[in-house]
Amino acid sequence: MGSRVTTTDPDQRRRSDLQARRGSATSGFLLGRNALADGADVLSDEMIAIDGNGVPTLSIVIPTFQRPAFLAEAVKSAMAQDHGGLFEVVVIDDDPLSDGHERLRAAMPDVGAAGFRYLRNRRNLGMYPNINRCVSAARGSWLTILHDDDLLDPDFARRMFRQLAARPDLDGLVCRKRLRDHRAVPFTERGAKRAARRLLDLCRFRGRAVRRITARKLFWGCIVGNTVGFLCRTADVRSLGGFLPEEHPSSDYFFYARFAERFALAETRNVLATIRIADNSLMRPETQLACLRRGYELQQAYVGTVAPRWWRRVSPLLMAWQIANTSRVWRSDLTRAETIAAIGIETPRNRPLLLLIARAMMRGL
């Protein structure tokens, strides 16, 4: 006669739940691949190594490439965490000729009980392979990735861990971000648009501290932004194979799609990080067109798997809004012919109110 095996071990229950979720992946695109081993033949030299007081709970990893001035600010924001547990900061420089560690050493804040490591790759790996190198180098059981030109608020880790402790059903939590625009003419949102966004936020959170971000919600775009301000278990990122370089420039979006399919992802209403906007490669029209194309590809992969097939009818309207929003925020001077060639469909006139109503009815806010 068989017997039912039960356990009161929450970690063991979680491992069983994760195995069930991974085994029920709904589409091949969500399976991805293990990209953590890409560039395994390239060594990283340890340029600075300061041991902390013990095994860290949290690793704040910072991939960097030729941004020494911004990097110093990013490191200081990471070191300034008032998180009560042990943590480490790990910088991996993807410029093999960089002297960034020497510049940083001069401006290095007192690390206190935190650990700090600065590694430099012997050969340039590229953006996402270097992020994956950071994931592999992390020693903490929890992980957050900080871009070298972005910032964390001093209470980021403390408040994020407090919310995760209150919601043990969650596997990952991402905070909201403020923008710091360094362009000659900064992007600003005024008047009716700002009021509309605040009203939309009230509808999204409905008075709650956090809201669940399901894989289906990500049909509507990367609604949580990039991975700055995202906190999860290091083992979970590794189990997903990290970030896929072939999905550039939307690797963050695809990563969130995989994470939300296999794990419990949520967004907190707290603004705890800052991302910069500057004139760089992300501003190029070809990069913006690639983002639009990748977003449309993910939408189509979702249809019939994560989302119902009839949602395909909404895609042209959604893409029309995303094209208009890209032009508004990133000031990309994209022609209609360019966008049609990039995504492969003709989009209708942008009708944001109609799209908002559709999203509200389809629970996609």
Written overview of the protein:
The protein has 365 residues and is of the alpha/beta class. Helix content is 39%, strand content 18%. It contains 13 helices and 10 strands. It has helices at residues 10-23, 28-31, 68-79, 100-106, 127-137, 156-166, 191-205, 234-239, 251-262, 285-302, 315-330, 336-343, 352-361, and strands spanning 44-50, 58-64, 87-93, 115-121, 142-145, 151-152, 172-181, 210-212, 230-233, 265-277. Strands 1, 2, 3, 4, 5, 6, 7, 8, 9 and 10 form a 10-stranded mixed sheet that branches. Strand 2, helix 3 and strand 3 form a beta-alpha-beta unit. Helix 10 packs antiparallel against helix 11 (315-330) and helix 10 crosses helix 12.
Condensed summary:
The chain is of the alpha/beta class and 365 residues long. The protein has helices at 10-23, 28-31, 68-79, 100-106, 127-137, 156-166, 191-205, 234-239, 251-262, 285-302, 315-330, 336-343, 352-361; strands at 44-50, 58-64, 87-93, 115-121, 142-145, 151-152, 172-181, 210-212, 230-233, 265-277. Strands 1, 2, 3, 4, 5, 6, 7, 8, 9 and 10 form a ten-stranded mixed beta sheet that branches.
